[in-house]
Every structure is written in structure tokens, then in C-alpha cells.
């Protein structure tokens, strides 16, 4: 089906021939364990049960959970996350101490992961304009290609982090809700052609590889990481409206600072550091 947003060119039909499934058990020495589920409610919810269950201390973190289908995919806040088997869907559970991550790194976790995703997808569709939509989306040509859901769990073994990723690789939008179709795209629809079988096979392990590299930069407070997310910032120079519960903040995006906060340049000339909230799509002009 063609998206109804007139600004969005029709997405090519890339789904009429059989292709290998997305590789969901990549070999990666960084992972202590990899669990591949045909179907689950949500990989983040599964990880939470794993980390809070009886055998919590026995799991060799990092653990990744992969699935071809989520019945109740979670987005940020109360949002749901729609996907199909063409979406690379996984959650990695981390022990922050083992990754040398401190509390103040946590707000930057999704950004580091977003940069890792761009590292992998940009070479597959280099003609597109790849951006990070603060705080946790990866977009191409202003269409959402990946969402990231970081969560923190307090367990008897200590704090644990879950990093949930949904990356639309070859998603078939025919059965997606209209609201999703209007704003989403896949790597293949952005590229305009299907990926080669080998590119599909390599995607998950490439992504893990880049994730490890970017998490290491985060732990080291390496300036390249912050420089990269600032370069990729979609909101920079654009009108932004952010909802924080009942509160609405308006201004112009002034970049993402090294702590991961969004700088908002407001009409009264001040700069506000925003650490949370929901960024509205299509804020009114004015
Ligand atoms: O865009 C968002 O608001 C975040 C979407 C995150 C989706 C991923 S898919 C894997 C993991 N499991 C979930 O239930 N959600 C995350």
C-alpha cells in the first residue's frame, strides 16, 4: 500500500520474491548468550522477566534476545511498536558496570545505539539523508527506520540495562496501521532495491559490532561519539515542540550536547537543556 503522506514518494514493492530470513543469531564474542525466539510479547519485556527471574544471576551478560514477531512491541512511554519479520528486532541486556557505564551515561545510551545503527545502514543507502531524531529514532529522509527503547531495571544483582532495537530492514507495510505507514520506512524502501542476501545475513552481526564500538566510546567519553550524534541531529535549526506531560516547550533545535541533552533555543533568547519528553512531529510554524 502507498503511504498517504503526499511528501512521501511511493515505496517500491520489494516483497514479491522469497529471501533468507534476517539472521538473528549472529556470532559475536561480546555476547555471553543469544536467545532466538520465533515469537514473544516484547523482547524488552522478555529480558525484564529474565533479569528479574529466579536464575537472574546465572545469565552471562550481555545477553541478546531476538525475535521474528512481537505480539506487544513497546515504544517509548505508552506507545506501541509495530513491526513484522522484515524488522530486525532484539534487545540486549547489559551489566553497566561490566561495560564501564556510569549513571550519567544512561541518557546517552539510545544516542550511542542510534549512531551505531547509522554506521551500519548509511553505507546500504548512501543517497538518503540519515538522521537521528532525538532522543531515540533513526530516520532516513524524515521517515522512521529504527526505534530504540532503553530501559533500566533494578535487580538483586544490581542495576541492569536493556537496549531494545527495532530496525526496519525489509518491513512489509501492507498490514501496518495507517499511522505507522505514514511515518515509517525500511532500509530497503529507502534504498529502492532489495539488499543482497549476504548484506541481510551480515546486518545483525555488523550492528552488534558497531554497538560494541560505540558503547566503548560512550564509556570512554570519546568526543567522536558526541560529535557524530550532533552531526546527525535532525532537529538542529528546525522548529521543535516538546511535550513533557502537561508542559509544552517550543523553540528551535540547537544541537545535542555531549551529555545527550537537546539544546532548545527559545523565543526569549535562552537556551534550555532538555533531557526528556516527546518531540512532536510537524510542529506549527510561527
Ligand atoms: O520508537 C520507539 O518508541 C522505540 C521502539 C523500540 C522498539 C524495540 S523492538 C525490540 C524491543 N522490544 C520492544 O518491545 N521494543 C523494542
From TrEMBL:
Record-linked InterPro entries: aa-tRNA-synth_II/BPL/LPL, Biotin_CoA_COase_ligase, BPL_C, BPL_LPL_catalytic
Alphabetical keyword list: Biotin, Ligase
Pfam families assigned: BPL_C, BPL_LplA_LipB
Species for this entry: Isosphaera pallida (strain ATCC 43644 / DSM 9630 / IS1B)
GO terms assigned for molecular function: biotin--[biotin carboxyl-carrier protein] ligase activity
Domain BPL/LPL catalytic: 35-219
Name of the protein: biotin--[biotin carboxyl-carrier protein] ligase
Residues that span the membrane, as ranges: none
GO cellular component: cytoplasm
Amino acid at each position: 500500500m502507498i503511504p498517504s503522506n503526499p511528501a512521501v514518494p511511493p515505496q517500491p514493492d520489494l516483497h514479491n520474491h522469497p529471501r533468507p530470513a534476517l539472521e538473528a543469531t549472529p556470532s559475536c564474542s561480546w555476547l555471553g548468550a543469544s536467545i532466538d525466539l520465533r515469537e514473544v510479547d516484547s523482547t524488552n519485556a522478555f529480558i525484564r522477566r529474565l533479569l528479574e527471574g529466579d536464575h537472574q544471576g546465572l545469565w552471562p551478560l550481555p545477553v541478546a534476545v531476538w525475535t521474528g514477531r512481537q505480539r506487544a512491541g513497546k515504544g517509548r512511554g505508552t506507545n506501541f511498536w509495530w513491526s513484522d519479520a522484515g524488522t530486525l528486532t532484539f534487545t540486549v541486556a547489559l551489566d553497566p558496570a561490566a561495560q564501564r557505564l556510569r549513571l550519567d551515561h544512561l541518557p546517552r545510551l539510545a544516542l550511542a545505539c542510534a549512531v551505531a545503527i547509522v554506521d551500519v545502514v548509511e553505507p546500504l543507502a548512501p543517497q538518503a539523508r540519515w538522521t537521528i531524531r532525538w532522543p531515540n529514532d533513526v530516520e532516513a529522509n524524515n521517515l522512521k527506520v529504527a526505534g530504540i527503547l532503553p530501559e533500566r531495571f533494578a535487580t538483586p544483582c544490581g542495576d541492569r540495562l536493556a537496549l531494545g532495537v527495532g530496525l526496519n530492514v525489509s518491513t512489509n507495510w501492507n498490514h501496518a496501521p495507517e499511522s505507522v505507514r505514514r511515518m515509517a520506512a525500511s532500509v530497503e524502501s529507502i534504498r529502492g532495491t532489495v539488499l543482497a542476501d549476504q548484506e541481510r545475513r551480515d546486518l545483525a552481526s555488523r550492528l552488534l559490532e558497531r554497538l560494541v564500538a560505540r558503547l566503548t566510546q560512550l564509556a570512554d567519553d570519546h568526543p567522536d561519539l558526541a560529535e557524530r550524534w550532533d552531526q546527525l541531529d535532525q532537529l538542529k535549526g528546525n522548529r521543535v515542540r516538546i511535550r513533557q506531560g502537561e508542559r509544552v516547550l517550543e523553540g528551535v533545535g540547537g544541537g545535542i550536547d555531549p551529555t545527550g541533552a537537546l539544546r532548545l533555543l527559545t523565543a526569549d533568547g535562552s537556551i534550555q537543556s532538555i533531557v526528556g519528553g516527546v518531540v512532536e512531529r510537524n510542529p506549527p510554524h510561527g
